[in-house]
Amino acid sequence: FVPLKRSALQGEIVGPLADLHLHQTFGYTRAQCLQTLEALYRFPLPGDAAVTGVTVHFGAVAIVATLAAREAAEAEYATAKQEGRQAVLAKREGPDLFTLQVAGLQPDQEIVVETHYIQLARSTGAGWSVRVPLTTAPRYVRSDERSPGGSPGPVQGQPLALLRDPGHRFALNLRLRGVAKVTSATHPLAVTIVDGDAQVQLQGGEVLPDRDCVLHWTSQQAEHQPH
Prior knowledge:
Layout: E1 4-14, E2 17-26, E3 37-44, E4 50-58, E5 61-64, H1 70-82, E6 87-94, E7 97-105, E8 111-120, E9 122-124, E10 127-132, E11 169-177, E12 179-183, E13 189-194, E14 197-207, E15 213-219, H2 220-224
Parallel strand pairs: 1-11
Antiparallel strand pairs: 1-2, 2-8, 3-7, 4-5, 4-8, 6-7, 9-10, 10-15, 11-14, 12-15, 13-14
């Protein structure tokens, strides 16, 4: 098991359009394991998100993922893994569920997976809201989804456990343009607004990812409209 050490969401929101980058940091020490390993992880993304790119940083080396048909991508990943090369495979397993396979992880080497996606905020009367999913629900795995020999397939990768501390934390750092107010009913926020631009972080910096994070904001135009 290669622990996820930290996840952080950064980006910018203009009007209803959110341009976001999710950074997931993995790593383990030589004291924990001397071998080169493969990590398998299941993580949530918004169901209406459009993923535009995945980049994996193995220390100073970066691998940029390319879009390919599932069978071709899986075959290319398997070949790279068999040859001992570093490789990454990201797959959408459902509307809001992705799996990530990373081969060639080495001890004492930090691995950062950056997933870039675009999302539309939802209209909430006078404002907008966006949900940042931080947890995954258990999912039934059919018998034909298992790999040969009956071993678990990628969809059974380590989820974010809800009943225990998963051992990692989540951080948020977003800039919202042209807003008057930003609030959250799920998490205390640290918000700084200057000339209509809001810098939004979580109070305390990082939180246990035990619930989704929901942000709500109103635009400057909405605030100044006559009631």
